[in-house]
Amino acid sequence: LILFGLLAVNVNYIQVIAADDLANHPANKRLLIQEYDINRGTILASDRSTVLARSRATTDDLKYLRRYPRGRLYGHLTGFYSFVFGRSRLEQSFNPYLSGRSDEQLPQRFIDEVLGRDQRGASIVLSIDPRLQKIADRGLGARQGAVAAINPQTGEVLALASRPSYDPNPLSSHKPREIRRTWDRLNADPDKPLLSNASDQFFPPGSTFKVVVAAAALENGMGPNSTVPNPLELDLPQTTETLENFGGSQCPGGSQISLAQALQVSCNVAFGQFGLKLGGEKLAEQARRFGFNQTIPFDVPFQEGAFPDPSAFDQDQPGLAFSAIGQKDVRVNVLHLALVAGSIGNDGVLMTPRLVREIRDPSGRVLRTLQPEPWGEPMSASSARKLTRMMTAVVEAGTATGAQIPGVSVAGKTGTAQHPGGDPHAWFLAFAPAEDPTIAVAVVVLNGGDLGSEATGGAVAAPIAREVMEAALSG
Questions:
Q1: β-bridge mates for residue 332, sequence order
Q2: What is residue 267's DSSP assignment?
Q3: Beta strands in 269-364 (DSSP E)
Q4: Of 93, 207, 343, 409, which residue is the catalytic one?
Q5: Average pLDDT of 319-342?
Q6: Is 379 strand, coil or helix?
Q7: Are 458 and 400 in contact (CB under 8 A)?
Q8: Predicted local distance difference test score (pLDDT) of residue 29
Q9: What is the pTM of this model?
Q10: 128-160 pLDDT per residue, tens
Q11: Is 127 a known active-site residue?
């Protein structure tokens, strides 16, 4: 009796409680085969006319074939719909709607059954602006890296481009041999094209992380005019090593340098001191408030930034100084850095990032509209406005003059991140117009792009961000 009771519990658990999870699991081949009898919903860009994914009827045993008209440009967003390897990205996270299985589509499924026609899935409309996506991708060119652009007031992702990328069409074909051959080739590629440099992978942010340190300083009683000594190099505690500025030069400003001046010229020696002055606990807390080591929900896989446990700095004060300039074990990806920039421009409020704007049934009726949601408040509005003015000076007369847009105030910060794998990564984050931003952008060009060891964020990454911001603000 006990065993029969356990079997009954197990059957009910599988068929009732776990039914949806099992049905939507990407490895569930039986239901995947059934799905090929469904005219799967379309994935559209924000203009509702640019098709990123659609299904078309075939004469094969599998009734519908999934196609991606702009494959590589949007591969890391749409994902693939594979007979062999299941679903990924939006194809997976919005599968209940695309396959017509959501509760909201129950009446539609009933009507399709009564009329004897193929079931149809709902379409999803993204926030992605196809014009900005093309500009971001073109800006990267053949260089490896990523660009993320968001609306800081709503959290909507306007562009999310990554190089290298991949074409999901071969993985979504009806030819198992071709699918496996493509899969093996992509996984053998050392550049990892199946992983997005914009959201999956993260890198040392270099001096772009100084905006987080500046926020911590402003939130803990310091002001833009708070000063620290300005030596040629910083003698680090617990070691004979020193921390130098980029190029080994001394920062301008005399024997003392303010927080605002240090951000404007990206002074490593000064920020190393500000980091030591604040301490590991306060820096870690500020990073946490910006979402580092936290969970930020997103419509596709997303790797949040990482900041070391502050207890690690008790015996590693040099590590604290290097962490304050975005080195050591600090890591972040491009989308997260765009969220950081956007929250500063949005009076200190970080919005939850969103890719999907609305869901429509096959007749075009809106089933669901996804509304903006605040994720957190990393800093006060007063501190955010002070930091915005400091970042505006970086673009007007600091390390990011390459991001200037005539007639528009731009707030930004450059970064050049050393790492053991090659030449430094070139970073840039910005938002515009600075006083009331409608776009925030983050860019990384890996290993310096064309300039290699001579690369800087201002020379390599800032011009890409400027092009994206100009296009967004002009129309």
A1: 203
A2: -
A3: 350-351, 356-360
A4: 207
A5: 97
A6: coil
A7: yes
A8: 65
A9: 0.91
A10: 999 999 999 999 999 999 999 999 999 999 999
A11: no
